Amino acid sequence: MRTGYIISGIGHGLLMLWLLFGGLFLRGPDEPPLRVSEVSLISGAEFAALNEAAQAPRPAPAPSPPETSPAPPRRPAPPAPEPDPEPAAPEPEPEPEPAPPAPEPEPEPEPPAPAPEVTPPAADRVTNEVVEAPEDPLPEGPVLIEESAPAEATEPQAPVEELPAQAPEASTTQIVTEADRPDAAPTSSPRPPRRPDRPAPRPETVEAPAPDPEPAPTPEPTPPNNAAIDSAVNDALADVLGEAAGTPGPSGPPLTSGERDGLRVAVSRCWNLGSASTDALNTTVVVLVQMSRDGRPEGIEMISSNGPTQEATRIAYEAARRAVIRCGTSGYGLPAEKYDQWREIEMTFDPGNMRIR
Amino acid sequence: MKHFTMAAMLIGALALSACDRNSRFGDDAATAGAGGIVPGSPSDPTSPAYFEQTIGDRVLFAVDQSTLSAEAQDVLAKQATWLMENPEFSAIVEGHADEQGTREYNLALGARRASAVQAYLIDRGVAPNRLRTVSYGKERPLAICSDESCYAQNRRAVTVLTAGAGTS
Amino acid sequence: MKPIRILIMALAIVGLTQTATHAQPLRIVIDEGVIEPLPVAIPTFVAAGGEAAQYAAEITRVIAADLTGTGLFREIPASAHISSVTSFDAPVAYADWKAINAQALVVGAVEMAGGGNLVIKFRLFDVFSGAALGEGLQFSGTVEGWRRIAHKVADVVYSRITGEGGYFDSRVVFVSEQGPKNARLKRLALMDYDGANVQFLTDSDDLVLAPRFSPTGDRVLYTSYETGRPQIYVLDVASVSRVALDTSGGNMTFAPRFSPDGQSVVFSLEQGGNTDVYTVGLDGSGMRRLTDAPSIETAPSFSPDGSRIVFESDRSGTQQLYVMPTSGGEAKRISFGPGRYGTPVWSPRGDLIAFTKQNAGRFHIGVMRTDGSEERLLTASFLDEGPTWSPNGRVIMFTRETQGESGAPALYSVDISGRNLRRVATPSAASDPAWGPLQN
């Protein structure tokens, strides 16, 4: 099945390229309106499959360079201040739920030259294609946008610890969790240049290699793709906390239940499963978070998951990762004297009470 | 009102002169009298209008039921009589339901009602090949309010006359 | 095992600068979170040229409408954006997006490709992780089909973020209604899932009911009074031509649905006031009776694997749901709550059955597992009925009719979580929606 999709996808991709570069657009403008099939190169399902496939194994061309590097230290970086202010509280926006009627039409006026209504619209053919890394027409391999992109990458990776001038500043000194944060609009957005280090991303290795994707819900969900993301994530984390980790600290007494609770509540507040699939809502993931001395996450990786599918695991992990990163931007306020107690935190995200039922 | 009186008289006349197999029919005709008959009007015993308005072309049902009440049987007996006396007509029995039900179920329920009427008419002597049934479910309400006063009128089976002697 | 390896590695890494003395990581369990729409930023796609700019704006708007329409996303208005995207390949200013709490960012570009075609490319980013989610994609199609392209982009974004399959590039066939309640005119109509591009498939001369899409979306089964009594027809969507489904005989036939392979039809046939479930080949061959009881058996629906059929029956005295093998045979009752249950529809994922429930004077759309457990009611109103599943099994569309003399039906959709109830825009009153598959 998957193989079929892959083959199909590759075939379609080639066809697409040909269409794109060959300059021949076979589809004549006048085809029968309802005919969609012919031109379409890939179906939605194939799409999905391709995506998955793409995410998963990811062949060589995988652009993501850095990641390859083996075990790099996940290490934080320079002690510098931290950067970005952070977001504002998500503001939930409830949703009425049962409220019925509200008709909210959303018809859309039609813009340009849309098809006329009542008449058979030209629905038509949309050729889609998945541009995969290799040949993709897209400029850089898509995937790595991270690397290529952001300002960050731009600066070569500076060796650890150097933090250039980090622009940031503004934000933080205080811990503003999103919850408290008044409102969004950020005033200052630091963005740029900073970025120092980020050692090679850390591997993520431990996780499953990517051998066999689909089958079993093995705990190793993190598809390789994640590796790329993770490295980026860690970079991002590093950025965020530019600070360096420093020396070992005294290992203090265990955290009090109040301290543990505070941490739990803080993470809970950012753990949003509102956009998770129903399968992901049935997936528990366990992640290991490396903490910086000032109480911010600087590395995160998935240890295990019971997701029914790899996709569900991915979604569940991403939601957990967002929670840890977003709410930890300003630090979790953990007692510094007990750093050794929380230098690594294993967090289990169990949506058992939140699933749709 | 006037129609009603006239109808009553006609019924009486009919009862007296025709094959009255139904005793209640005769009872109803206690106040028999004579009157002018306008062909095709409700006063003309051989007209569809008479069938529809004087005898009554419909019977009503209880919620989610297709059993015929005593009143319904009464009306149907008269319909049967009329049909036998007017062989040039056939009939389609339409079954209907109120809006308080799902579309598919109501179609099936309407069919049950129509069928119950059809069976009764056949039992009363109407040739099967003169009767057909069709269900409209909740698609064709007679009364359109959304309360029991309307629902009661909509849970019905209507015997619609058609020209022709019927088919097999 | 794994944790140990991780730990070792972690220690090795950390050991570079620190003493690796601590032992166990702190463990906490997070079992409460929030359910909120994910904030997403969808800056207007970058356009190459004036004509492309028009499409870029519209396409961006449709993508945003698709995503926010799910109730799973909240769009951060452009007015709140700190930076604008002027080049598809420019580095992403993550900090700016983080600053406005955009958790996902969609960046795209539109260009005219000549020959009446559009080319659209886009990338999706996880802002807080500072990384792209998946790879960039490119679609091309005719300008007339710009809406479909937009839906496809939205499907990919939705899918990558939620993990569910998409459903935006799909169509819905339904009954468009006009006129007073006691003399309604009904005709079949087709539209995009969001109500755009309405196209009529029949005129309103004959009463038509409950259309159902074939698995591939190229055909529609429906019931028409064309001959004076309800009969099932098969309509070819492309040519808009129809033929009666041959069920031999003059009995009333209704409530049809395609088998998962599209080759046969399961439906109800009424004979002498008794309605039962039958199947027949699409070409009219091989008709078989699947139920044989004096009660009403109707509204059959196949399981997606084709092995079972769920239907409603009042054999117990009231309408209830039953499941039987596709070959017929013993049916097992699965609904046991108070009230009446009808119009069961198996979800495309196979795990749930949606239904209409009538209880205490109210109607509900609900879902239950295929064994009848875990029943959940998603809606409640004067009259809700006839659920149909989105291609990904995440959303249910249904008919909601208002009360009274001026009462009229309209289409609504609701997430299977029971959240995000919405009215689907239609040009006039509408009923009996049937959601088609994702288009190719």
Automatic annotation (TrEMBL), chain A:
Biased composition (Pro residues): 58-119, 210-224
Organism per entry: Sinisalibacter lacisalsi
Keywords: Membrane, Transmembrane, Transmembrane helix
Spans through the membrane: 6-26
Compositional bias per record (Basic and acidic residues), positions renumbered to this chain: 194-205
Tree of life domain: Bacteria
Chain spans, region Disordered: 52-229
The protein's name in its UniProt record: Cell envelope biogenesis protein TolA
From TrEMBL, chain B:
SUPFAM superfamilies on file: OmpA-like (SSF103088)
Compartment(s) where it occurs, according to its Swiss-Prot or TrEMBL record: Cell outer membrane
Ranges where the OmpA-like domain occurs: 48-165
Keywords for this protein: Cell cycle, Cell division, Cell outer membrane, Lipoprotein, Membrane, Palmitate, Signal
Membrane topology (UniProt): Lipid-anchor
The protein's role, per its UniProt record: Part of the Tol-Pal system, which plays a role in outer membrane invagination during cell division and is important for maintaining outer membrane integrity.
Family designation: Belongs to the Pal lipoprotein family.
Name of the featured protein: Peptidoglycan-associated lipoprotein
Native organism: Sinisalibacter lacisalsi
